[in-house]
Amino acid sequence: MADIIDLKRPKTLKLFNPEKGVTVSGPPGRGSGYWAGASSILYDEKESRFYLYYRLRRPRLIEDGREIGRGYECRIAESNDGIEFKTIWKADKSYFGGISLEKASLTKTIEGKYRLYISYVDPEDNRWRIDMIEAEKVKDLDPTKKVKIFSPGDLGIEGIKDPEVIIIGGLYYMFVSYAPSPRDIDSVLRTKMHETADIYNTGVTKSCTGLAISSDGISFKWLGDVLSPEEDAWDAYATRITSILYSPPVFYAFYDGSRDVSENYEEKLGLAVSFDLKDFERVTKKSPLLLSPYSSGSIRYVNAVCVFGKIYYYYEMALEDGSHELRVSVIGS
Predict the structure, then answer these.
(1) What is the helix (H) or strand (E) element at residue 127, kind and residue range?
(2) The model's pTM
């Protein structure tokens, strides 16, 4: 178990041991490509309840010219203790164009409504985009009433996905994974590189983290890059922020890193710090922060929340057979 030094207080912020985590959702099958994870945790102080979003995924398969694998279903479960969850909402990928869906960010607005910012592949151009769903109650989130937040064309990029939204000082901060456009791209090349409907798995661009801010959580201003891959490093292909923990005066950012496109689905856990949520400095410059002891070693999509002095870490972890399951580890202060 590693520690993160809190620069303001003499104590340390404890990290989790992935092997000792409790299974929240097992993979929907055995073997590589079967995943449960890409979670988003929300603790509702008013209701004293945890709400957990996650998605299920099968290996990529084509049947009768139709995509039947990849991210096929998303769920939201509730819990009183943050460990044992009961599913209260689910939606399959048909509501989102039928190709694949991925990480979302479950948020309670300043006004007290619930929002789900979710990423999926738009069948119109085979590119990842982000929409939002809103409701008075979590169980009433209606995917047929989704509202567009970002599409790649809005920003002149090739993909945007995996939102993580936090509210600070009355502003909504959205961290996203975005795929920059290669230089000298034309319409022919753009069409070709999106044929697989997953630009992040092609190797023609990289997975970077960008930031957008908003006063209402609907109309966002794009501020641009805050964390990009560095050459000749363990995270030279991907640096995807998936969670932010605040321990004044430091923001700790957990991110998914990979060396090259071959590790695109098997990212490892990295750590960066910031004082303003715009400039981030890597802590894990030489190697990942934590690894699974199994198969690819992947620990990814870490999402954490601090509740009554304890940190609840939710993470997607590689198992011995190559599948991924969703686990939680609770660490005391």
Answers:
(1) strand 127-135
(2) 0.94
